[in-house]
Hints:
heterodimer; A: 135 residues; mainly alpha; B: 288 residues; 9 helices; 3 strands; signal (chain B); transcription (chain B); protein heterodimerization activity (chain B)
Amino acid sequence: MKLESEEKCTDGNTSGATGGDQAESKTAGQPLAEFLMQLEDYTPTIPDAVTSHYLTMAGFEASDPRMVRLVSLAAQKFISDIGNDALQHCKARSSALPNKSSKTSKDKKYTLTMEDLAPALNEYGITVKKPPYFV
Amino acid sequence: MAEHRTVLGVCLGALLTEAGFDAVDNIAYETMLEVLTSFMISTGNTARNYCELAGRVQPVVGDLVMTYADLGIDLRGIERYARRQQRLVLPALGVGSAPRPITILQAGSKLPHPSHIPEHLPAFPDPHAYIRTPTHKQPVTEYEALREKAAAQKRDIERALTKFVAKTGDTQSLFTTDDVNIFPLVACKPHPQPFLDALMPKDQVFDEEDEDLELQPPPKRVKRGLDLSQNTDKDSDADDSTPPSSPPECPDSQSEVGKEILQAEKISSEDPIDNPYLQAVKKPHKYI
């Protein structure tokens, strides 16, 4: 009952999204609600204590531990997506430079640098401008 | 506070390793950490706002849905992500026990709190830190005891000292038996001129040995003069520097003078310096 009302509100809030997304976001609540049930025995990488600490700092009183796990999972996914995008940037960069000294065609050791991270974050709407050195 | 950030950093490292990175720049690491922290805090904030907007206090799943929609975060693949194969699960973080104060140097058991002190306050330190036991007996301050102690000490000192002198120095005995040790008396040393002490009062008592040495040379000189006067008729080859030669020339004198000469001889025989380096130079005999 409450979920349905919130789904209606979702329609109104996602005005920025496309029409296709609107149809999907209508039912975004249900899969998540179902997924919540499956979270009982799942342990995300980020411990519950840490997540609940940050949520409590924000004022979110998590009575259900599954909610906390959902938040931590969402955060994990977010970071993983950014990391994957940055990795693709890194691979594109390393493949663009024909380096004969490296034994394999691709550089085996990938290092996450600001050069790769900045464009990856830009796609998610986070603009990062850091000075290359500290004055 | 910093502990959560540290743990979050570890989790971030695990996530990046999962993604395929082998190393991460420090700046990039810090940036990602800030992103993660800010993500969670804004999720909590927005979810709380939606929850309160709906007139509730406890958030519900729907609030989270609204939050993610509001923040523009797409969670469509979350189920697939949750079931990914290569997910790393960090070892469960145990609650670290508070570092116990080092009990190596503990001496004695700590006293429990008295009843008026609540239990959550820190415990008492080791009893030796504030309980003082004197290492010596308190001195007796009673007048009677002190007088008695002083008197006993004085008597003991006198007795011990006289015994010591009697056993190491000259003794005289009151009894005619030979056993001197019944009741040894410290022998008194007769002063050659006892009236001098009465005639010349001193305000400082010097060492007795020094006094004896001072008094001994004068008798020697006097007696030598007497000797020379007695032996003027006899030929004497003796030099003046060897006084021991004079006494043998008058063996007959049994008078007190002779005894005193003998005494002087004994004393004067000690006079020649034992140290060969300090003796007078002797001319060597002529080589034949």
